[in-house]
Task: structure prediction
Amino acid sequence: MQIKTKAIVISALKYQERSLIVKCFTASDGLKSYFVANAFSNKKNQQKAGYFQPLTLLEIEATHKNKGTLEYFKEIRLSHVYQTITTDIVKSTIVMFLSEVLHHSIHEEEKNEKLFEFLETALLWLDAHEHVANFHLILLIEMTKYLGFYPDNIDDSFDFFEMREGIFTPFQGTNCLSKHETALLKKVIQLKFDTTHAVFSVVERQLLLKILVDYYTIHLDGFKKPKSIEVFKAIFSN
Result:
């Protein structure tokens, strides 16, 4: 089947000397893996390795056989040329971290257009704005809406959050966050990307990051702690 769709690059793995296996989250078909021959050749072709950096926004034409095997691009072009993400160390570190999160979060070849639109909008926002210290935290909590484990009953006054059930509770059980941790979680749930004031200290942001990664680990089979998380912590250490 020939398709035209937008796609977000999740990862690219070098194959032998010149080729790539590229994993993309597509608007039309969910997660897809593509074989890119001669990605590192000197020839002037569209399938350049530079097109496949983490979370690059593409418009593609491709052949989808839908047999669980590698697919093939017919044409590729950039949907948006990032202006700051590739040159800003903070933003590029955020993107590296989030690409790992998505790699371990999205597994199915199923259309999830709302998740795609959310991610595309979020990445465009990241590229266009300067105050991004809380971006990753907001994205992680918002993404749970589309992955099926967004915290429930967030408007009530209960002081503890039960991680396995994803609900707030008046009692601190075995799998609950502390009262302080729960208050931080409630605060990040209320944030928007364009919130410009600090909101959290460095220590609080690192604690929230741990909480959210743990929450993903509990609710997603096969989710692994991103390897880039230590680099990420170092970048946001001040």
User: Anything to note?
Assistant: The first strand starts at residue 2 and ends at 15. The helical segments are 89-105, 113-128, 135-147, 179-190, 202-219, 229-235. The chain has six helices and seven strands.
